[in-house]
Amino acid sequence: EHYLKSIEENKHLNVFLDVYHSEAISKAQELQNKIDSGQSLGKLFGLVIGIKDVLVQKNKEVRSASKILEGFESQFTATSVQRLLDEDAIIIGSQNCDEFAMGSSNENSAFGPTLNADDNLKVPGGSSGASAVSVQAGLCMAALGTDTGGSVRQPAAFCGVVGIKPTYSRVSRYGLIAFASSFDCIGVFSKNIEDNALILEVISGSDDYDSTVSNKEVPEYSKQLSFNKKARVAFIKETIENEALQEEIKNSTLERLNWLKEQGHEVEEVTFPHLDYVLPTYYILTTAEASSNLSRFDGVRYGYRAPEAYNMESMYKLSRTQGFGEEVKRRIMLGTFVLSASYYDAYYTKAQKVRRIIRDETRDILSKYDFIIMPTTPSTAFPLNSDRENPAEMYLEDIFTVQANVSGIPAISIPNGRDKSNMPIGLQVMTDVFKENELYAFSNYLM
Ligand code: GLN
């Protein structure tokens, strides 16, 4: 009831697309009965959690914040969400985001932008912007988001909360509406590391419904949160010296690194000359995958169908023209272009090769150091409706976050002070694949 009331009082933030009032209350009642009758309680007993509108739930509408899914209800529940329910969490509602998770400001939603709770004239980041705000504003205790190129970490940084993108394949994608399948990761927002670790350990692990998910055993992250060794930390010269980096973010990152040195940890500068290629590689490969994944929205199988369609061809065309927003169309066209016969080798194949180089070089650094530290974002939250000369400028927002997705490694954003206008600053920590336990323990030490 407390959270339902907070949601009602903060409607202007535009966080929830659906609130599951009666269901949440009856689940709470059911949990109370469990206590009364002395039954054993799940790991997430009573945890009130919100779900980004890209994870499906049985008999519930899901929209990916797009008009094209209008009226569509899922026949099954995503594995990650089911695991929360199985451990006695309370799902409070579905949360706004950028359409099909494409964006960095939550402004690409067909349901209007979500506002940053610290400054209502600023964006919360994206694409999981509303999920970050839900935790920032205390509308629920935690939220599930997705991170294809930074969509959990960037909004976490903009809203002053903790957000993790785990290793690719750590969490089943069954029931996640695909954007770019070889990058998509389900991640967690929370106020602190312990909650985050507990939720990730519940949703991680093998799943017969997703053949790409790892069978590796899931450690109990939440029970390994003390860090008492000497860490070897690298920071990448090209990130700290990046022209676009806001001065206060640079300073707070350097202060953190200095503090680590003072505590006796090894902190060293490394170079990563390929940083400039990370964004183009990401945008070529993700648009290619998106153009293929989004071809299923054809006016026949899901949601919206243009009423004035008069034959099959016009049904496809009109439904997609009216159903998709601008940014989604831009990416479908870009992706179709890079996959086309005459350009496939020049763009798609080339980008796959560059991806391999970026991954190998990143993991090479991580074979010598335990962690890489860098800012999560080049700036703190920017104003809504910012003037940008061209839409690709928004893509620069992802400069520090996409490396982890291109490489498949886990990365987390934790709060690291505020700027002059009192907006939160995020610090990003990365480590090698499947070392979430160390990432959490070290982040806990840093917080
Ligand atoms: N901002 C990035 C993009 O627009 C990241 C999106 C994401 O991680 N879902 O592609």
TrEMBL record:
Active site, UniProt feature: 52 (charge relay system), 127 (charge relay system), 151 (acyl-ester intermediate)
An annotated GO cellular component: glutamyl-tRNA(Gln) amidotransferase complex
GO BP annotations, alphabetical order: translation
UniProt-recorded Gene Ontology molecular function terms: ATP binding; glutaminyl-tRNA synthase (glutamine-hydrolyzing) activity
Catalytically driven reaction(s): L-glutamyl-tRNA(Gln) + L-glutamine + ATP + H2O = L-glutaminyl-tRNA(Gln) + L-glutamate + ADP + phosphate + H(+)
Keyword tags: ATP-binding, Ligase, Nucleotide-binding, Protein biosynthesis
Enzyme superclass (EC): ligase
The Amidase domain, residue ranges: 1-439
Enzyme Commission number: 6.3.5.7
Membrane spanning stretches: none
Keyword Signal among record annotations: no
Chain's role: Allows the formation of correctly charged Gln-tRNA(Gln) through the transamidation of misacylated Glu-tRNA(Gln) in organisms which lack glutaminyl-tRNA synthetase. The reaction takes place in the presence of glutamine and ATP through an activated gamma-phospho-Glu-tRNA(Gln).
Subunit structure and binding partners: Heterotrimer of A, B and C subunits.
Family that this chain belongs to: Belongs to the amidase family. GatA subfamily.
Protein name: Glutamyl-tRNA(Gln) amidotransferase subunit A
Lineage: Bacteria, Pseudomonadati, Bacteroidota, Cytophagia, Cytophagales
Gene symbol of the encoding locus: gatA
